[in-house]
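hiii, so i know i said id send this last week but things got crazy w the move. better late than never?? heres the sequnce for the chain we talked about at the cafe, plus the structure i predicted for it. fair warning i was half asleep when i ran it
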Amino acid sequence: MPSTSNKKAVMGILAGFSILIVVYSFIIVQQILLGLIVAVVPWLLYLVVRFVLTLERIATALERLATARTRESESAAAGPAGDYQRPSESYEHDREADGGVENE
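okay and structure toks below
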């Protein structure tokens, strides 16, 4: 990731380049719309690159969060003894009988 001084330098160069294009198109070519279109394209490319990099950072952070939650849930499922114990079948059978299911 570029440092802040590099970002400012790139933005300064891009701004100066855009101003030169607009001034040239207005004074020499006398078509301001053409100059504005040409000056806006580099800014749009810059914004697209920033958007993609931001989405990449968000995706990376979400992956880290999902991994941490998975590890946390696995350690919680293991319990304090370190292994998961299922309820016994007799417990499950008694619960069904209490719920109104008849034994056959």
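btw The mean pLDDT is 78. thought thatd interest u
miss u guys!!
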